[in-house]
Amino acid sequence: MATPYQDRKIPAPTLNEGDAPYFEGAAQGKLMTKYCNDCKKYHHFPRPMCPHCHSTNTEWREAKGTGTVYSVSVTRAAGPVPYALAYVTLDEGPTMITNIVDCDLDTIQIGQKVKVTFKPTDDPKVLVPMFKPA
Amino acid sequence: MSIKGKAYIAGVYEHPTRKAEHASLAQLHAEVAKGAVEDAGLSLKDVDAYFCAGDAPGLGPLNMIDYMGLKVRHFDSTDVGGSSYLIHASHAAQAIAEGKCKVALITLAGRPRSEGRSGTQQRVAIPNVPDAPYEGPYGLVTVNMYALAAKRHMYEFGTTSEQLAWVKVAASHHAQYNPHAFLQKVMTVEDVVNSPMIADPLHRADCCVVTDGGGAILMVAPEIAKSLKRPLVKLIGAGESTKGPLGGNVDLTFSGAAVSGPIAFAEAGVKHSDIKYASIYDSFTITVVMQLEDLGFCKKGEGGKFVADGDLISGVGKLPFNTDGGGMCNNHPNNRGGITKIIEAVRQLRGEAHPKVQVKNCDIALAHGTGGSLGTRHGSATMIMERE
To answer: Which among A122, B103, B109, B148 counts the fewest CB atoms within 10 Å?
Structure first.
């Protein structure tokens, strides 16, 4: 059995104050993440206050865009086309919710190396990071 | 201050309907409320505290206290999904112990079947929810968030779909005796693993049912419980916790039960071998397996082996669970199963479960709820109850 990747309609996110740098980065092909200058750890999703040590001394950093699949579920009955919901652990450390795309979804394995790609939402100016086999 | 023995569950009621096309949401809440107070031998005029969660219409207590004509001096609308009602029971016991109230009513009701709400619907973005912009675009639905936990459990521990299927099989063995159960047919492991795949590795039969209806419980002060004609069932331990993606330190191998369970056991002062019956939240088969591990009924990673071969079936296995058929087969009103978990545990402790599934000498029982999502954020609540 094979389940080829198909494009699906992706709802554009409704941003809250402070979210713009992440999505401005995505529109330029950059995966932005948040780093804490006090505890020296990354976190995801990005916030002004580090959820690990509660410091507000955080800064935006561009991630390399490479990572490893932590878990994946090919979702077959929640919309018009199948899609692969996944957690990907970035090489910088944090694990993020995403989709795995541009491959046979049935071949995706936990532990597989992946790299970031950006897919448009229903607002063509807004792109979101997804991952494909590295 | 401990809540041990400070409050009794004097009334329980589960609505018999599984599809309530012609009843309003508020009406369902009122019907289960009346059922629970009458089960205790009291009336709604005796209620002096009210608890409800996000399933209640409008501003919860404001709308429902007015609708039902209650006169209360204490209320609480903590909402952490399906685990809310177990947390309400604990909070009601705290309030009773502190003298804030004596007769606390907790209700749950909903009409997801009539309204067409299920666990495969795409979530709507709600403004100001901080995680929404980073999750909404990726198609998170209830089933695939639990599926992420199941997939990782299989990867880490070798858990199989057949082992998960035993959770449904055991529940179906119990549901055959429940005339109100939504699914009453006994199922096999093959039936489960051959049902349509919804979100790998969870099949349709790995999921709970979608039902309308509801339930209510009535918690009372000890002197009131002892004045009533019902068997005495008291809360002896309770724990609550939340768990999330931990700022990106995601670990799907454990649930909030790893925190709430030990708190409840310590307060109750009982061992796992003392628990004669367990109501374990069964939104999905994986939920049961992970909670059994985290509550300490087996080692981490061995939940699949624990549930296999019928060990959850009453009269057969070592830990009878969800003898009403659970959320898997009986009822998951408003897509939230917390209150039915308490109700069946109380039936067991009273000796009022169906004779085919009644656990002999059931003196201590546990109920546990997981509300929200194992894969992202969830609330977790554990209750231990004893028959006096």
So the answer is: A122
> B2-41, pLDDT tens digit by residue?
999 999 999 999 999 999 999 999 999 999 999 999 999 9
From CA B182, how far away is CA A91, in angstroms rounded? 47
Residues in A closer than 8 angstroms to B125, CB to CB, are 11, 13-14
Domain B8-116+208-387: top CATH class: alpha beta
Q: Does A43 touch chain B (CB under 8 A)?
A: yes
Q: In whole angstroms, what is the distance from residue A30 CA to residue B366 CA? A: 49
**Spatial separation of the C-alpha atoms in residues B215 and B124, rounded to whole Å:** 27
Residue B166 exposure: Cα atoms within 13 Å on the Cβ side: 19
Please report the DSSP string for B187-244 in residue order.
Answer: --HHHHHTSPEEETTEEGGGBPP-B-EEEEEEEE-HHHHTTSSS--EEEEEEEEEEE-
Supply the DSSP symbol for B326. I
Closest CA in chain A for residue B151 = A71
For residue A112, list chain B residues with Cβ-Cβ distance below 8 A. none
Q: Give B-chain residues touching A54 at CB under 8 angstroms.
A: none
B26-46 core/surface letters (b: 16 or more CB in 10 A; e: else):
bebbbbbbbbbbebbebebeb
| Smallest Cα distance from A82 to chain B, Å | 9
Rounded Cα gap, residues B36 and B166, in angstroms = 32
Q: Kindly state the tokens that stand for B385.
A: 């109850």
Phi, psi angles (nearest 5°) of residue B53: -120, -160
Asked whether B189 and B170 are in contact (CB, 8 A), the reply is no
A72 with B198: Cβ contact below 8 A: no
* pLDDT > 80? residue A122: yes
Residue B154, min C-alpha distance to chain A (Å): 10
* Beta strands B103-110 and B213-220, pairing class: antiparallel
Cross-chain residue pair B148–A71, CB shorter than 8 Å: yes
Dihedral of alpha carbons B138, B144, B145, B151, sign: negative
Contact B178, B354 (CB under 8 A): yes
pLDDT tens, position by position, A81-121: 999 999 999 999 999 999 999 999 999 999 999 999 999 99
**In order of start, what are the domains of chain A with their CATH numbers?**
20-133 (2.40.50.840)
Those of residues 2-31 in A touching chain B at CB distance below 8 A are 8, 10-16, 19, 22-23
CB A9 within 8 A of CB A28: no
For chain B, list residues whose CB is within 8 angstroms of any CB belonging to chain A. 120-122, 125, 127-128, 130-141, 143-145, 147-152, 155, 196-202, 204, 245-250, 252, 375-376
